[in-house]
User: Which sequence fits this backbone?
């Protein structure tokens, strides 16, 4: 199990076991903080508490000072791992509430005969677990967990449908039966005497708009956003190894680059960018603008079809669970190239989710109008007419966005976001699996988040979906797997808890305003970034998979298709896509990846 995670921690390995208690702890280390003193598993001086920990605690030095003042004695120089041990002794199960960072950890309390597991608020660091055959096992990846001799790994049919409904498998489900993800913001306490465990939520993302609006919110809130983001970036520059920044040329990565370069002073910050041969997907020229403005040591790589195909076996060979986000490819290449020069990179993850940065926010006003004035029976007819229009495969083309929008509007409001983003809608799910689809079960997570949002407006309900589901189970999973496959740590300044706690209280009317996405963030960054960066059209980290399937560079293996899938329906989709009659890029990619993953 430990060897299966060597890519997550190539620098050192630690194993410990108590044969009498049948307790085994294993750890792989990517050495970043306190290189000489941070070996794990780590124990308190009296051997009463032990820990294995993956992540970084950015406020560990402040917490260490507090603990020293309370009488705790530290053996290491500046290890955040040791701080967690003393913090648990001081604050017990309330420890996660005090942490600012990313983590999954397990603390073994020998006298209390219990194991305490915790995962950070947004689930940046993974944690899988299973209780089977009297054995409780956990790991950072499924690929390690399923190597345990007592853990059976059998495909879970409902999770397979969720994979095609969302393009990823949302927590707590995994692709396997009886194996689960601990959701972000949750703890798990295991009692060793009877192997009973309890899961509890210690934090949740809640939208609570300020009741008082300042006289000039753009100026007042903008200054606070700048200050909090600057402070967050400075925290995440904490490292005993080389560090850099992912720079796409978008608003979020450009802001992080600006504040990182400011903090670095005379030392040139390293920035890294991936481009594409196809112009509609390429953003390298914008990245160069920021790199020149802030005098960074800038590095670019171009992802061609030939290079992508060469990377796919490498990526799928390390992927512990299928995920249908095709931007995993450029993210993987970006991490691969970045790791040649640094061990830690800062990224812009979280900015779009917190500040309403995605295209579906623009679709909401049209959606209200469409639902009010177009009778339900006409929806299918309108979709049929539009589907007959030729499909183009440029990045975020108008026909692609229009067809996607109308697809979602054929269903109730609480399903809009999931259907807009998902590879298949409920009707096509039934065709692919040749059985009825229980919409309430398949989309249970999306429905839960829609209902959990106490604000009644569509913008906030959509923000809730993106932040609680899409960010945690797609964006952050992609970032974690792509980076750790290359032994690179990625940090997300936008997910600093102080910044999140402020932004979640800004009313939605200042996030999406008069057709402008990320309105308040862009206003806040006007003193920092040029307008051509702030107010250009968003591209996203897309990949031209639509064209690849149309040209035959990628194709489905019908003979080796995953056994649950209906081959005639797959064939029909591929033929329609190649003839430009329909745009099935996302569905075809998800099928192709699942087939390739299952063969592995």
Assistant:
């Amino acid at each position: 199990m430990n060897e299966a995670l060597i890519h997550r921690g190539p620098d050192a390995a630690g194993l410990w076991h108590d044969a009498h208690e049948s307790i085994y702890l294993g750890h792989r280390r990517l050495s970043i903080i306190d290189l000489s003193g941070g070996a794990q598993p780590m124990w308190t001086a009296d051997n009463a508490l032990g820990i294995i920990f993956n992540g970084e605690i950015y406020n560990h030095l402040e917490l260490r000072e507090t603990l020293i003042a309370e009488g705790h004695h530290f053996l290491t120089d500046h290890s955040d791992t040791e701080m967690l041990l003393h913090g648990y002794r001081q604050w017990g199960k309330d420890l996660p509430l005090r942490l600012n960072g990313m983590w999954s950890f397990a603390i073994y309390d020998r006298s209390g005969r219990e194991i305490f597991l915790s995962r950070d608020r947004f689930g940046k660091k993974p944690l899988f677990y299973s209780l089977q055959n009297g054995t409780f096992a956990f790991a950072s990846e499924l690929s390690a967990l399923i190597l345990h001799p007592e853990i059976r790994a059998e495909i879970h049919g409902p999770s397979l449908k969720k994979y095609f409904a969302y393009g990823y498998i949302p927590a707590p489900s995994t692709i396997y039966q009886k194996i689960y993800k601990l959701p972000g913001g949750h703890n798990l306490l295991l009692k060793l005497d009877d192997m009973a465990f309890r899961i509890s939520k210690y934090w949740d993302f809640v939208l609570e708009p300020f009741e008082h609006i300042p006289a000039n919110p753009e100026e007042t809130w903008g200054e606070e956003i700048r200050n909090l983001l600057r402070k967050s970036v400075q925290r995440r520059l904490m490292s005993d190894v080389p560090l850099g920044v992912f720079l796409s040329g978008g608003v979020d990565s450009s802001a992080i680059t600006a504040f990182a370069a400011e903090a670095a002073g005379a030392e040139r910050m390293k920035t890294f960018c991936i481009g594409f041969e196809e112009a509609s997907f390429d953003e390298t020229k914008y990245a160069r603008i920021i790199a020149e403005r802030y005098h960074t040591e800038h590095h670019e790589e171009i992802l061609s079809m030939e290079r992508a195909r060469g990377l796919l076996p490498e990526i799928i060979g390390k992927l512990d669970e299928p995920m249908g986000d095709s931007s995993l490819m450029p993210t993987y290449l970006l991490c691969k190239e970045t790791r040649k020069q640094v061990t830690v990179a800062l990224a812009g993850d979280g900015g779009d989710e917190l500040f309403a940065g995605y295209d579906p926010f623009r679709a909401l006003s049209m959606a209200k109008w469409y639902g009010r004035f177009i009778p339900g029976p006409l929806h299918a007819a309108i979709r049929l007419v539009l589907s007959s229009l030729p499909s183009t495969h440029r990045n975020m083309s108008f026909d692609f966005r229009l067809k996607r929008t109308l697809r979602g509007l054929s269903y109730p409001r609480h399903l809009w976001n999931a259907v807009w983003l998902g590879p298949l809608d409920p009707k096509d799910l039934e065709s692919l699996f040749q059985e009825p689809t229980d919409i309430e079960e398949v989309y249970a997570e999306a429905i839960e988040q829609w209902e959990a949002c106490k604000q009644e407006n569509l913008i906030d309900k959509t923000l809730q979906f993106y932040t609680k589901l899409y960010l945690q189970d797609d964006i952050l999973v992609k970032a974690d797997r792509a980076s750790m496959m290359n032994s690179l740590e990625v940090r997300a300044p936008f997910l600093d808890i102080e910044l999140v706690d402020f932004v979640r209280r800004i009313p939605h009317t200042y996030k999406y305003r008069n057709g402008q996405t990320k309105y308040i963030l862009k206003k806040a960054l006007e003193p920092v970034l040029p307008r051509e960066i702030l107010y250009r059209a968003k591209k996203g980290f897309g990949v031209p998979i639509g064209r690849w399937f149309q040209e035959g560079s990628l194709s489905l293996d019908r003979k080796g298709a995953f056994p649950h899938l209906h081959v005639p329906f797959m064939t029909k989709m591929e033929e329609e896509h190649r003839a430009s009659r329909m745009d099935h890029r996302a569905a075809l990619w998800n099928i192709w990846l699942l087939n390739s993953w299952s063969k592995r």
The mean pLDDT is 91. The two ends are 18 Å apart (CA to CA).
